[in-house]
Design goal:
Blueprint lengths: L1 H20 L16 H17 L12 E9 L2 E9 L10 E6 L5 E5 L4
Antiparallel strand pairs: 1-2, 2-3, 3-4
C-alpha cells in the first residue's frame, strides 16, 4: 500500500509540474552553450514583444510589427543576437526602432530603443 501511494504521488507530481512552472515565454529559456537557430531567436523575440505589449510597456501599435533584422553583434559579455523591430506608426520617432538582445543559446537579455 505504501509503494502504491508513493507511485501515485510521483505520477501526480510529474503531471502537474509543467502547469506549475509554465509561464509566458517559458519555452524560450535555454541551458547550455549550443547556439540557437535564427528561427528560434526570432520566435522568442516575437513572444517577448507581445508580452511587452500585453504588459503595457509597449504601445498596442507594436502588436502587428514583425521583426526587421536579426544579426549577431559583439556585446559586453561576448556575442549576442540582436533582433530589430521597426514601427513607422510610433508616435515618438526616437522610439520607432526596438532592439532586443539574446544570448547565443537564445535567452533574453534586454530590450531598448538605443541598440546599445
Amino acid at each position: 500500500m505504501k509503494n502504491h501511494f508513493i507511485a501515485t504521488s510521483v505520477v501526480a507530481a510529474a503531471l502537474c509540474a509543467p502547469a506549475v512552472f509554465a509561464a509566458e515565454g517559458g519555452n524560450c529559456h535555454f541551458h547550455g552553450n549550443k547556439p540557437a537557430a535564427e528561427a528560434t531567436v526570432t520566435g522568442c523575440a516575437l513572444q517577448r514583444k507581445d508580452a511587452l505589449v500585453k504588459g503595457g510597456k509597449l504601445d498596442a501599435s507594436w502588436r502587428a510589427v514583425k521583426h526587421d533584422t536579426i544579426e549577431t553583434v559583439d556585446g559586453k559579455k561576448g556575442k549576442e543576437w540582436r533582433v530589430t523591430f521597426r514601427n513607422p506608426a510610433a508616435a515618438d520617432k526616437s522610439k520607432e526602432t526596438l532592439y532586443m538582445f539574446f544570448t547565443p543559446p537564445g535567452n533574453f537579455i534586454a530590450a531598448n530603443f538605443t541598440g546599445q
